[in-house]
Please model this.
Amino acid sequence: MAEVPLFASSLEPYHARLAEALERVARSGRYILGPEVDAFEEEFARYVGVRHCVGVANGTDALTIALKAAGVGPGDEVVLPSFTFYATAEAALVLGARPAYCDIDPETFNVTRETVEAAMTPRTKAIVPVHLFGNLAPVPALRDLGVPVIEDAAQAVGGALGGVRAGALGHAATFSFFPSKNLPCLGDGGAIVTDDDDLAEAARILRFHGSVDKRTFTEVGWNSRLDELQAAVLRVLLPELDGWIDRRRGVAEMYERLGLGEHVELPRVPDGARHAYHLYVVRSERELPIGRGYYRTPVHRQPAIASDVELPGTEEAARTNQALPMGTDLTEDQVREVVECVSGST
Ligand SMILES: Cc1ncc(COP(=O)(O)O)c(C=O)c1O
Model:
């Protein structure tokens, strides 16, 4: 039997509709900040359950621009986990701010109120909880800590906590539409969402060189727009997202039902959370013969930005996590094959 892919989702069934959307844009002559981006921003804001969406070029720019729009600048501190993709910390650093790394609970892979509070100082200007692997971070418990909470929801589109979608839990949130993400585009893309009118307006200005009218430049910003082509793609795929998340949850249920939990620690989903299962990440003290370990070198030990802070939960998660195949197209036979492969090795 062919090897089970780690990312088991295909856009093949949507190719004809995607081609139609791409052709429509190609023929329209409008390629930058036109009707597709406007429509996607409205549709995605409605999906998340917030008032504003600002489409940008990728999830890293989304974080950087959201932090800047929230007032983060040189000398400020941003509390964020080290157990995440490098971009989470990079966004703070390019603004001249310092990432104040907080620890995580290795069972959920996410920050807690206690770990965030322990990293806060009078210089803290924002908190960036990451919904890692699609599991929901306890954002509501961070909202009264006195500074804006910007969710890094790059891996959690389609997830929810207490019936509120990832992206509508904090003061603002950022998404990535990188091709491997739950809601992909055909290249790079990202978005900032928020209910805060001022933050949304600031982000809109910052994504276009710091200008409202393209003639007067009131800020130093970025050239970071979501393309019309990518917005058109996202408009085809967004209506499929909830169905895809159901299929991902079905795969997680199969792993449980077929006995994976006898061999490794299964993902722990907080009460009231709807895990988006971007990745299906278990924990094991043993090396597993299938899958991939993520963030083995967490951000606070990366050469460019190393810090000597001690983060025991982070070290444990970095050592023991292993992502197993997940995706919308995994069959029960493939899931059984993965479970057999894992069980044969333990
Ligand atoms: C947690 C997290 N934050 C930020 C990003 C950055 O997104 P992008 O690759 O679209 O810049 C990613 C994606 O790779 C991510 O996984």
Remarks:
- The chain is about 35% helix and 15% strand.
- Residues 241-257 form the longest helix (17 residues).
- The chain has a mean pLDDT of 97.
- The pocket of pyridoxal-5'-phosphate is lined by residues 58-60, 84-85, 87-88, 130, 152, 154-155, 176, 178, 188, 190 (CB under 6 Å).
